[in-house]
From TrEMBL, chain B:
Residues 89-295 form the ABC transmembrane type-1 domain. PROSITE patterns: ABC_TM1. Belongs to the binding-protein-dependent transport system permease family. CysTW subfamily. InterPro entries: MetI-like (IPR000515), MetI-like_sf (IPR035906). GO terms for biological process: transmembrane transport. This is ABC transporter permease subunit. It is a multi-pass membrane protein.
Amino acid sequence: MHGIKKWFGTFQAVDDVTLEIRSNEFFTLLGPSGCGKTTLLRMIAGFELPTEGQVLLDGTDISRLLPNQRPVNTVFQNYALFPHLTVAENIGFGLKMLGKPKSEIDSVVKDMLKLVHLEGRGNNPVTQLSGGQQQRVALARALAPRPKVLLLDEPLSALDLKLRKSMQMELKRLQLETGITFVFVTHDQEEALTMSDRIAVMSTGTVRQVGSPWDIYDRPAERFVADFIGETNFLEADVVSVSGDRARVRLSSGAEISATYPDGVTPKGKVTIVVRPEHARLGPPGSGVLEGVLDDIVYLGTDNHFHVKVDGGGTFIVRQQNAKSGPCGFSEQERVSIAINDDVAQILRD
Amino acid sequence: MTLSAQDATEQRQKKHVRDRWLLSAPALILIIAASVGPLLIVVLYSFLAPGSYGDVKWEFSTEGWFNVLFTRDIFDDTVSLADAHFSIFWRSIKLAFATTVFCLIFGFPTAYFIATRAPHNRSLWLFLITIPFWTNMLIRTFAIQEVIRSEGIINTLLMKIGIISAPIQMMFTDFAIMLGMTYVFLPLMVLPLYASLEKLDFRLIEAGYDLYASRFGVLWRIIIPLVKPGIIAGSILVFVPALSSYVVPRVLGGGKNLMVGNLIELQFGQGRNWPLGAALSVTLVIIVLFAMLYYVRNASKSGGSAHG
Ligand SMILES: Nc1ncnc2c1ncn2[C@@H]1O[C@H](COP(=O)(O)OP(=O)(O)O)[C@@H](O)[C@H]1O
Ligand SMILES: [Mg+2]
């Protein structure tokens, strides 16, 4: 996609988005609700025309083609199954409209039913299926014509947690088995991290960062991305020196650590760095790079969250796994020191 | 369960049934008084003998029914089939059917148009659709006459422009009757169609396009099957009154192009043959009933197999 802009009247829903989605990948558009994910997806499908910019598929511009002229299928958020048709008729609809012979439709439908574990349900009316089953019919229906790209708009949001987890695995499996490019929309960061090959994080109509789940989580380029995904500590720091892809930064305590920085940024002067809570350790005073008072201990079963009031202002959260059973060895209001693992701090673009 | 408990349950059920009857009594009384009762009177009249100045003589006779199907020659009493009745019934059915089809053709796009407007605009459009209902049907029919008669708007206009040199005869034709009935009954088609279309989930239409359906494919395989209840309701609402139409064929068809309604009226008026009129009415009711049964049965059947 190239320089996509979309206005609804005077409201700009998508602002200059350029994205390259590779074939056969599981690509996720992640962002808070209202940031323009659906609008972007609808422009790929052809339900909306971009006000400016192009949608390219294998190098050809498809942005002005009608939805029924694009080799792209959608799994709708509410499934949008045809209530007057059976499961098999729903799945075969696309192929039928493409004018495929009945024998071919029948065999594809059979394969699809197997693929989504709905064997023997072909003649059921879709209205009699459970939510999870309807979801799988919607998937099968969109996959049956073997589109080049499958678009999924928050397809799991209507399912309960357990079903959602299993459908996540299911989707990933389907993507691998079919080799079709999936473009998946969600506002759930965990879902995005689990399933995606690459993620585009969006906010108010723009793409803030594109990268692998690891990139997005461990190397967030800006505050919005770091904040939206997972829990994060933000620290003010001064850049001391830069060498290669690392920079030395001085924290408020005077201690120096090394930090990575995003592409296209030359770190200098005052910067904000992020450190994930699980990338820091708690120790006796003087053992780490930040000193403070342990304000609060939150026990979460698998791990503890330590809220530390850092000397000189701010709270830093440290997350430590409960590898052994028994007390964690720290008590509230105790003076502690925070050590930060090597190569975990990331400088943000301002 | 003990015997007394069983009794108690039975009693409760009985009371329940009684309550239900009581609650539906007003509706039942209304239906009987307004619909079943009059119909029974008509059936009764059809088995009586005609009085000399209209009315009926209170003696059993099948003459009325006999006259529906046969005519007796005035001079030699030979019996022959009542061709006139057959052809009038047949014409009425054809005209009512054609009217239904035209109402569907014009009503569907209208209803679709309204259903796709922004919600706060829809009531305005619906309001506009119902405006003709505010005027008496007779007056509306005369308005149509003003449009299509030989010195009417259409002919005057066409002659002014020079497309035709002599007025086209539209009045007193089947075309005129059909036009009039389509105009008069169109809202009866639009309203139920709109009610169905308004409930239609337009995301299903997007899903159709997404799955490579053409415009026609979406219309035929998605929209029409889903609004079928509205199509059935609208068709019945148009067909039934069109079949028994009286005012429109009287005004626009002149005296020659009769429909069943006029034929029946004739028996109660000039004809002074109430039993025959009653028998014709009952025949009409029976035809409508069978037509509806056939139509509804067929429509719901094709609902299950049209997209195999
Ligand atoms: N058809 C439309 N007309 C006007 N505004 C719209 C339309 N569709 C979406 N928007 C607006 O565009 C913004 C982005 O919407 P959307 O793409 O649905 O967000 P998301 O899917 O990320 O929640 C929202 O503020 C929404 O109100
Ligand atoms: Mg959305």
